[in-house]
Design goal:
Layout lengths: L1 H13 L2 H20 L13 H24 L4 H10 L6 H35 L8 H25 L1 H16 L13 H6 L18 H28 L1
Helix pairs in contact: 1-5, 2-3, 2-5, 3-5, 3-6, 3-7, 5-9, 6-7, 6-9
């Protein structure tokens, strides 16, 4: 029963007009960003440095999170209320039903992220014959995960209060994705300023590349964003499970 509902919810998300349109935009933007921005490197680093890849992830994350937030709005729409009337007839417990819907939202984000990452790997392989992709695992983890958890948790929390608050949150996130806070990681949700600033102040290795060294403040900020997002998600989950 759970797997059937998960497949149904995932199809509802990925085949919606909003998801398809924004997904296509994200794919095109990823390609353009790689061939115009990342190919030049970030702050004097090589295009395939971990700092440059962090910059790529920061750039594409805004649209990926936009897709996620727009998908979240569907969870609090009037159409969703009609769907609840149908699914309420099933034997699936309320909390499991809600958890399944949230899992579908998470999987939709992962699908978009995987597609963008695969595009970047093809770019590096074909353009630079670069295949040391294991170097990108840490950037993927520290850039995408904390921001995703924070924005998703906040979106769910605001949506559980009011759909209007969720819609108001979307432009705020987009504006934050454009702002660079440089050496203030606790304000830099997307870490865009950090990954552009740090290579300019770090020592270089034997190849002349700034070492990929993360400050304690930055690590703590990513943990904080993750923790806040998880707390807000749990709070929203408890509230929504009482509503259904």
């Amino acid at each position: 029963m759970e797997s059937k509902i998960l497949k149904y919810e995932l199809k509802r998300i990925i085949f919606s007009k909003i998801f398809v349109i924004t997904f296509i935009i994200e794919i095109f933007y990823s390609v353009i960003n790689l061939y115009t921005e990342i190919i030049q490197g970030v702050s004097g680093t090589s295009p395939f440095s971990q700092w440059s890849y962090c910059k790529f992830l920061c750039d594409i994350n805004a649209i990926m999170l936009l897709i996620l937030m727009l998908s979240c709005t569907g969870l609090f729409s009037r159409n969703e209320q009609r769907v609840k009337e149908i699914t309420s007839c099933t034997a699936l417990p309320t909390k499991k039903y809600l958890a399944t819907k949230c899992l579908a939202l998470i999987l939709s984000y992962i699908i978009v992220a995987i597609c963008c990452i695969l595009i970047s790997l093809v770019f590096y392989k074909t353009t630079f014959s670069f295949s040391s992709f294991q170097n990108f695992l840490l950037p993927i983890l520290i850039i995408l995960l904390p921001t995703f958890v924070f924005v998703f948790g906040t979106s769910m929390f605001l949506g559980s209060k009011s759909q209007t608050l969720l819609y108001a949150w979307i432009p705020v996130v987009l504006v934050l994705s454009l702002v660079s806070f440089n050496s203030t990681p606790f304000l830099d949700i997307f870490a865009k300023g950090y990954v552009a600033y740090m290579p300019t102040v770090l020592p270089v290795d034997h190849l002349g590349e700034p070492v990929f060294r993360l400050s304690l403040d930055f690590i703590m900020s990513r943990l904080l964003f993750t923790l806040v997002g998880m707390v807000l998600y749990v709070a929203s989950f408890k509230k929504l499970s009482r509503k259904i």
